[in-house]
Design a protein that fits this description.
InterPro entries: LRR_dom_sf. The protein is α/β, with parallel strands linked by helices. The protein has 16 helices and 17 strands.
């Protein structure tokens, strides 16, 4: 056989192999589509929702950007699922540094498939990416549909540039702002030059009720829009290079302008020294409070009057290595500030080794409605935990209501006391309903519980080790 014949034969074998491969692919696709046809639409919707939730519309030519679009074109079943407008209302847009790849077409597809429903937008603007090109301009045309807006800006200049472009957003309910880079000393002392827009630009958003400010941004009365309508406020100054100290007086003034506030999250590394004569703030509608940071942050707690508080979380930062003997006093002063203790049913304390057993007893005595108690990294003792479970010191008060107890890194708590206290609680609660007698106990990194105790307690109480 000559060379030409060999080549012809090789080409024939190659063609046959390609046809067999195509046949296998087609058969596999038909099998896959046949399997999909047996799935209920609800399951397909959940799968597609998970797929689309991680999709980032990026100016980089990332294939993942178009995953949801490709998914929706596989077969009639997926096309039917993809036609649900509610699946396309979340937009995660990443405008990267130095990228100018077209994003308009896929963004247009996303906006079209959402069919006029309210939009939840997460927008990241990279350094020097510029906020004045097609994706931003296209989003501005849909500003009447904005429901949630989260802006992650590399610099304060980019944040200001974007805010200056915003027009009234009548449906907007949530605004979250973060600046990654720390500014100069002058900017820390004069923060309003870049944040007055936050108040002015959202003045036309009557539904706005949630404000979140993170990293290198300082919240004052001059930066919060529509102050009387805000129900939820989150301040998280967690940038590593953040050196500006939040003024206690300024924060009090800010909270005084938020009479309808229901939840407050404060994570601030440093407060200024306590100013003599700084007034307290009455927060009659506040139900959830989270206070986190260095030791001197907790001195702010007694300044708050929250008679209707139901959830309180106190967390010392991991950098606070020294003990703070005033932490327990701050908590007690806060609980005693009102005419009657607030109806707190959930108390969470993190990194509080300085709170003594006596302080714990005093705190628990002021919480007659407590149902959930979480304590991490504490020196709380066996006797205090046993008293807590057994209701010995206050039979008609708090401990009878306790339904969940979570202890993590509490080295002075041992299994004998947990098991014996739960046994006694169960025997004493025989006449109670199942809901009243039920207690969930979670132990993490505490001295081990014996297998005998676990076997005995497991049918009677939700015990997790």
């Amino acid at each position: 056989m000559n060379v030409f014949g060999v080549r012809t034969l090789a080409f024939t074998h190659y063609t046959i192999a390609q046809e067999k491969y195509s046949t296998r692919i087609t058969t596999s696709s038909h099998i896959a589509m046949a399997i999909v046809s047996f799935f209920p639409p609800e399951l397909l919707t959940i799968i597609f929702k998970e797929c689309i939730a991680d999709t980032i519309l990026s100016t980089n030519d990332d294939p993942a950007t178009r995953t949801a679009i490709a998914f929706s074109q596989v077969c009639s079943w997926w096309r039917q699922v993809a036609s649900i407008p509610n699946l396309w209302i979340r937009l995660r847009i990443d405008i990267c540094e130095g990228c100018r790849n077209p994003l308009s077409s896929i963004l247009e597809t996303w906006l079209g498939k959402s069919q006029g429903l309210p939009l939840n937008i997460k927008l990241r603007i990279g350094r020097d990416s510029g906020a004045d090109f097609d994706p931003i301009r296209r989003l501005m045309k849909e500003i009447s549909r904005w429901k949630t807006l989260r802006i992650y800006a590399e610099t304060s200049r980019l944040l200001s540039y974007f805010l200056n472009k915003i027009e009234p957003a009548p449906a907007l309910e949530t605004v979250y702002v973060t600046v990654r880079q720390s500014g100069s000393w002058w900017h820390y002392q004069h923060p309003l030059d870049r944040l007055e827009q936050l108040r002015n630009r959202f003045a036309g958003s009557p539904r706005l009720c949630w404000i979140g400010i993170d990293r290198n941004v300082i919240a004052t009365t001059e930066t919060i829009p529509l102050r009387g309508s805000i129900f939820h406020l989150s301040l998280e100054y967690t940038a590593e290079k953040y050196t500006m100290v939040q003024s206690t007086g300024a924060l009090v003034e800010l909270l005084q302008e938020l009479p309808q506030l229901k939840s407050l999250n404060i994570n601030i590394p440093f407060f200024d020294k306590e100013s003599i004569g700084t007034p307290h703030v009455d927060m009659m509608n506040l139900t959830k409070l989270l206070l986190e940071g260095a030791d001197n942050v907790f001195a702010f707690l007694p300044r708050i009057r929250a008679p209707n508080l139901t959830n309180l979380t106190i967390s010392r930062s991991g950098d606070s290595l020294s003990r703070n003997p005033l932490l327990a006093k701050s908590i007690l002063d806060f609980l005693k500030a009102s005419h009657s203790p607030p109806p707190i049913y959930s108390l969470e304390l993190y990194n509080v080794p300085e709170i003594t057993d006596q302080d714990f007893t005093r705190i628990f005595a002021l919480l007659p409605s407590l149902e959930k108690l979480v304590i991490h990294n504490s020196s709380i003792s066996d006797a205090t935990v046993q008293e807590l479970i057994l209701c010995e010191s206050n039979v008609d008060g708090l401990r009878r209501c306790l339904k969940r107890l979570e202890l993590c890194v509490c080295e002075n708590v041992h299994e004998q006391n947990i098991s014996s206290a739960v046994r006694s609680r169960i025997s004493r609660g025989a006449h109670r309903s199942e809901a009243e007698a039920c207690l969930q106990v979670l132990l993490v990194d505490c001295p081990p519980v014996r297998k005998y105790d676990i076997k005995f307690l497991q049918p009677l109480v939700n015990l997790c080790i």
